[in-house]
Amino acid sequence: MKARAKSRVKDSTRSDVKDLNVLASRAMVATYTAYTRALESSSKGVLRIDNADLVRVSRDGSIAVVGKAKPRRKVNVGQVITVRRVESEASGCSA
């Protein structure tokens, strides 16, 4: 009986890990897609963080360092954080 229970646990953790890998790859694609769309639609460029520097990337690929990026929040391993959604009206975007 115990062998079956252990087998189910191993199977469920394998499927959970597979699901997490699928989720991570989808998140990576979605983040890159959002970045490229923002880059295409913005005339001034997109701000991003590169090696603790805040940089502006323009459509032509030129990079200008805007300033140093300080961490806003320290997150411990295993800590759950919530992210708020920015509505299109609040951000000044038109869809």
Q: Key terms for this structure?
A:
single chain; 95 residues; alpha+beta; three-stranded antiparallel beta sheet; 2 helices; 3 strands
Helices and strands: which structural class? alpha+beta
Radius of gyration: 20 Å
Helix content: 40-55%
The number of helices is 2
Parts with pLDDT < 50 across at least 5 consecutive residues = none
Shape estimate: extended
Strand order of the largest sheet: 1-2-3
Number of domains: 2
Order of helices and strands: HEEEH
For the secondary structure, the number of strands is 3
Largest sheet: 3 strands, antiparallel
> What is the mean pLDDT?
79
Q: Measure the end-to-end span.
A: 57 Å
Q: What is the beta-strand fraction?
A: 15-25%
Describe the structure.
The N and C termini lie far apart (57 Å). The chain has a three-stranded antiparallel β-sheet. The protein folds into two domains: 1-41; 43-73, no CATH class. It has helices at residues 2-41, 88-91, and strands at 46-50, 53-57, 63-68. With 95 residues, the protein is of the alpha+beta class. A hairpin with a 5-residue loop joins strand 2 (53-57) and strand 3.
Please render the helix and strand layout as text.
Layout: H1 2-41, E1 46-50, E2 53-57, E3 63-68, H2 88-91
Antiparallel strand pairs: 1-2, 2-3
Give a quick summary of the entry.
With 95 residues, the protein is α+β, with helices and mostly antiparallel strands. It has 2 helices and 3 strands, in the order αβββα.
